[in-house]
Automatic annotation (TrEMBL):
Location of the Tubulin/FtsZ GTPase domain: 47-242
CDD domains found in the cross-reference section: beta_tubulin
Gene Ontology MF: a single term: GTP binding
GO cellular component, one term: microtubule
Official protein name in the record: Tubulin beta chain
Described purpose of this protein according to its UniProt entry: Tubulin is the major constituent of microtubules, a cylinder consisting of laterally associated linear protofilaments composed of alpha- and beta-tubulin heterodimers. Microtubules grow by the addition of GTP-tubulin dimers to the microtubule end, where a stabilizing cap forms. Below the cap, tubulin dimers are in GDP-bound state, owing to GTPase activity of alpha-tubulin.
Length: 448
């Protein structure tokens, strides 16, 4: 069995993490006290990947981390309280007040050893640890700063394990002015230390809630339900028998053509409201699912562009429900004809697809994909412009330098982000032309 250890860091990381566990517990017919109530072997066949087991109970293979105690205290009192293992909660005494430097250098450093001890003991509980899944926001100080610190430490200690992140990017109009700083410092670290980063765009999650689900004023909880459906979708090949590669490493092999370009967008359909009781339409034809999945309205990215206006390297998609490989291949051929212009022509067979017989409980069929390409570029460009506007004035930098950061780190992070934007730019087709960029590419390869 290939186990994945999930690390939830900061408020956002823990809230999305909780929505995810709620979603996949239902997927596997596990109640909120960790008891299995289903009847299908398929639900249990790969359950160890995400759940640890005792004789009778299933627990999330998760570590819950926050520098301030409130979020974890609320989780300890929530309806999920019996599901989590209490020895996997780690909290500090106060938050970072949105300061990446406190999460990375000062307050975060104080709890790093405890976190790593728990990571080590969780790894020892696994037979064949596949890797780590980290859920955090890039805007808050704990998710971004402590998140970056833990990612560095996990990479150092488990260099051969896959490290994947679900990273929530700040919205266009961030709640806190310094979010572009925090996000840029984090991306600077994620470029080097993560294998794959799935970007969850809060503006896009909000739009999906409003436009697809008709919610007037979506709350974080609504956004998190949407995010967790998509995360449940793309993790389904690891959790259930499927015809798609069930190893993250192999999926990454296909999705990452160049080591630094490991930032992905995901899409999913159908989304549903948490309070929805009846299953969605069960009659989805696979081509319908396919077409909707690649529709901009179901992409968790805020630019809203058609995929074909992007430079797509490759994608991996999973279809859950009662579909045969033939149906899938026919639909894939049709999509290939329709969208062939969207994909770079120099990667053959760049749409990896598979089926999983176990459907989600609420929709009876679903489609989810991970897309590797320039879709993330607009978000990074926007963050980089917001960063530069602040940094040009040296606004708020004192909060960071007081925690031991050097202004050189601002300059380095800014330039790394700008490089990433140009590497993702469609006009930069020759980015990795060996003669012109060979040296830079080699450096990136060593670093990752
Ligand atoms: N989707 C979603 N985004 C959230 C949620 N909570 C916070 N955010 C976003 O995350 C960013 C703030 O990060 P938090 O996770 O609250 O901060 P933190 O990691 O706890 O760090 P501190 O600053 O130390 O509190 C902002 O961009 C918020 O919009 C949530 O439950 N869901
Ligand atoms: Mg917090």
């Amino acid at each position: 069995m290939r186990e994945v250890i999930s690390l939830q860091i900061g408020q956002c990381g823990n809230m999305i993490g909780s929505a995810f566990w709620r979603e996949i517990a239902e997927d596997h017919s596990i109640d909120l006290e960790g008891n299995y109530y289903g009847k299908s072997d398929k639900e249990l066949a790969k359950i160890d990947s995400y759940f640890s087991t005792t004789d009778t109970k299933f627990f999330p293979r998760a570590i819950m981390i926050d520098l301030e105690p409130q979020t974890l205290d609320e989780m300890r009192c929530s309806d999920l309280k019996k599901m989590y293992r209490t020895d996997k909660f780690i909290s500090g005494h106060s938050g970072t007040e949105n300061n990446w430097a406190k999460g990375y250098y000062t307050l975060g450093a104080e709890i790093k050893d405890l976190v790593m001890e728990t990571v080590r003991s969780s790894a020892e509980e696994c037979e064949h640890l596949e890797g780590f899944q980290i859920c955090h926001s890039l805007g808050g100080g704990t998710g971004s700063g402590l998140g970056s610190l833990i990612i560095n430490s996990v990479r150092e200690e488990f260099p051969d394990k896959i490290l994947e992140t679900f990273s929530v990017t700040p919205s266009k109009n961030p709640e806190i002015a310094v979010e572009p700083y925090n996000a840029t410092f984090s991306v600077n670290k994620l470029v080097e230390n993560a294998d794959s980063c799935i970007m969850l765009d809060n503006d896009a999650l909000y739009k999906i809630c409003q436009e697809n689900l008709g919610m007037e004023a979506p709350t974080y909880s609504d956004l998190n339900n949407v995010a967790s459906s998509a995360i449940a979708g793309i993790t389904s090949p690891i959790r259930f028998p499927s015809t798609l590669n069930s190893s993250w490493r192999k999926v990454c092999m296909n999705l990452v053509p160049f080591p630094r370009l490991h930032f992905f967008t995901i899409s999913h359909m159908p989304f549903y409201k948490q309070q929805q009781e009846k299953p969605e339409n069960s009659e989805w034809k696979i081509l319908d699912l396919f077409q909707r999945m690649v529709n901009p309205n179901n992409l968790i990215i805020s630019s809203g562009h058609d995929l074909c206006s992007q430079r797509i390297y490759s994608a991996a998609a999973i279809f859950r429900g009662n579909y045969s490989s033939k149906e899938l291949n026919d639909a894939l051929d049709e999509i290939h004809n329709e969208k062939s212009g969207c994909f770079v022509e120099w990667i053959p067979d760049n749409f990896l697809c598979g089926t999983c017989e176990v459907p989600p409980k609420r929709s009876l069929a679903s489609a989810s994909s991970i897309i590797s390409g320039s879709c993330v570029k607009d978000t990074y460009l926007r963050l980089s412009e917001q960063f530069t506007d602040l940094f040009r004035q040296k606004a708020y930098t004192h909060w960071y330098t007081e925690e031991g950061m050097d202004l050189m780190e601002f300059t380095e992070a800014e330039s790394n982000m700008n490089d990433l934007v140009s590497e993702y730019s469609p006009c930069c087709c020759c980015c990795y032309d060996e003669e012109e960029y060979g040296e830079e590419y080699d450096e990136g390869e060593e670093g990752s």
